[in-house]
Amino acid sequence: MEKLKLVQKAKTIKLPKNRTLSKEDDLIDLFPLPRYFQIHFQNVHENNHELQNELAQLKQYVARVDDKLERLLALLSCPPEAAL
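^ thats the sequence. predicted structure below, dont judge the formating
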């Protein structure tokens, strides 16, 4: 099986800020190597997992606060004699 050209050679090219693409340029050389994307998406995946856990904790906290607020409003709406 033939390896992809991107995997075969790992060279870095320093291009000027005002780079232009000519017909002789190899388009694949203008893009980062696959390892960059692997690390990037792994980082995104890990951050996503942490954020999902934090979101679940926040939802539980909001549910508890909402429950306490409902009980407090129920106590405030009933006559003082019923609270005793």
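Residues 42 and 83 are 56 Å apart (CA to CA).
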